[in-house]
Design goal:
Blueprint: H1 3-12, E1 17-21, H2 34-45, E2 49-53, E3 64-69
Antiparallel strand pairs: 1-3, 2-3
């Protein structure tokens, strides 16, 4: 599912906080986190995103992002 569609669906369902698990990118070229960078860049451009943060390790750590959505 595309990130923008996921965020729109979450807002429609009344969710205020979601977690996006994108993985750590250990198998990508140069072992660089490609999706991590793209997701964070997209989140900075979305009006419905109030804030986002990397969660603690047991919630995904650097392989995920927790997003706070406006109501």
């Amino acid at each position: 599912m595309q990130t923008a569609v996921f965020l729109a669906d979450a807002r429609r369902r009344g969710l205020r906080c979601v977690r996006i698990v994108h993985g750590k990118g250990l198998r990508s070229a140069g072992r660089e986190p490609v999706l991590r960078k793209r997701i964070r860049k997209l989140l900075t451009r979305r009006d419905e995103v109030l804030a986002f943060v990397e969660p603690r390790g047991f919630h995904g750590g650097s392989g995920a992002v927790v997003v706070l959505l406006e109501a």
